[in-house]
C-alpha cells in the first residue's frame, strides 16, 4: 500500500502528526499562509509546516500532538513544526494506532502504525479502542484501589504485567487480571 503524500493542500484533512516544538524566532516577522477560524496560524515551507496555536491534540478532523521539552509559550501559544512526511492518515474505523511508553513525555501515548518507530509487538487498534486502553493504563498507573481485588505481593510487577498485556496483546483487562491471578495460584 502506498503512503499518501501530504502537502499544503491536504495535510489538514483527517491526519495524525506529531509536531516538534520550535522557538518563536522561526516564524517571527513572517506572514502566515493561512489562519484558521480558531486563530491557529500556518506557515508553509517546501519541507513542512509551522503551526502557531493555543490548542493541540484534537484539531478539527486531525490528531496533532506537540512534542515539547519545555513550556516555551507566549500566553499559552506554542509553535510547532512538522515535515510533510510526518503526516499520516487518520480515521475512526481502521486499526491505525498502537500504544507505547514515550520516554520523552514519560507516559504511555498513542502512535501511528506508519511511523518509522512502529514495532509489530504492539497491538494495533482503532482510535476509539486506543482511547479506551489509554484510560485503563492511566487508571492502572495512577490509582491503587483496583489492586485491592487482585492478590499480589508487588504492585509495580502487577502494573507492569497489566500494562504490557494491554499494549502487546488483544486480551481485555479482566482477562489479564484473571491470567495474573491464575499464574500466582
Descriptive account of the structure:
With 185 residues, the protein is of the alpha+beta class. The protein folds into two domains: 15-89, no CATH class; 97-184, no CATH class. Helices cover 23% and strands 26% of the residues. The protein has three helices and ten strands, in the order E-E-E-E-E-E-E-E-E-E-H-H-H. The protein has helices spanning 127-142, 155-168, 173-184; strands at 15-22, 34-35, 41-44, 48-53, 57-59, 62-67, 78-83, 88-89, 97-102, 107-112. The strands form two sheets. Strands 1, 2, 3, 4, 5, 6, 7 and 8 form an eight-stranded mixed β-sheet that branches. Strands 9-10 form a two-stranded antiparallel sheet. The mean pLDDT is 93.
Summarize the structure.
With 185 residues, the chain is an alpha+beta fold. It contains three helices and ten strands; from the N terminus they run ββββββββββααα.
Biggest beta-sheet profile: 8 strands, mixed
Give the terminus-to-terminus CA distance: 47 Å
Give average pLDDT, whole number. Answer: 93
Order of helices and strands: EEEEEEEEEEHHH
Percentage of residues in DSSP E strands: 25-35%
Low-confidence sequence ranges: none
Please describe the topology of this protein.
Elements: E1 15-22, E2 34-35, E3 41-44, E4 48-53, E5 57-59, E6 62-67, E7 78-83, E8 88-89, E9 97-102, E10 107-112, H1 127-142, H2 155-168, H3 173-184
Parallel strand pairs: 1-6
Antiparallel strand pairs: 1-7, 1-8, 2-3, 3-4, 4-7, 5-6, 9-10
Helix pairs in contact: 1-2, 2-3
Key terms for this structure?
alpha+beta; 23% helix; 185 residues; 10 strands; two-stranded antiparallel sheet
Amino acid at each position: 500500500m502506498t503512503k499518501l503524500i501530504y502537502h499544503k493542500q491536504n495535510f489538514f484533512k483527517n491526519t495524525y502528526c506529531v509536531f516538534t516544538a520550535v522557538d518563536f524566532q522561526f516564524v517571527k516577522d513572517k506572514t502566515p499562509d493561512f489562519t484558521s477560524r480558531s486563530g491557529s496560524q500556518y506557515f508553509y515551507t517546501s519541507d513542512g509546516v509551522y503551526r502557531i496555536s493555543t490548542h493541540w491534540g484534537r484539531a478539527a478532523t486531525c490528531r496533532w500532538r506537540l512534542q515539547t521539552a519545555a513550556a516555551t509559550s507566549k500566553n499559552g501559544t506554542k509553535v510547532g513544526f512538522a515535515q510533510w512526511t510526518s503526516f499520516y492518515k487518520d480515521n475512526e474505523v481502521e486499526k491505525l494506532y498502537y500504544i507505547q511508553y514515550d520516554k520523552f513525555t514519560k507516559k504511555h501515548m498513542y502512535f501511528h502504525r506508519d511511523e518509522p518507530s512502529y514495532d509489530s509487538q504492539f497491538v494495533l487498534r482503532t482510535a476509539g479502542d486506543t482511547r479506551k486502553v489509554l484510560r485503563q493504563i492511566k487508571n492502572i498507573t495512577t490509582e491503587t484501589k483496583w489492586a485491592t481485588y487482585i492478590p499480589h505481593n508487588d504492585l509495580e510487577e502487577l502494573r507492569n504485567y497489566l500494562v504490557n498485556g494491554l499494549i502487546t496483546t488483544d486480551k481485555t483487562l479482566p482477562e489479564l487480571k484473571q491470567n495474573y491471578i491464575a499464574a500466582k495460584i
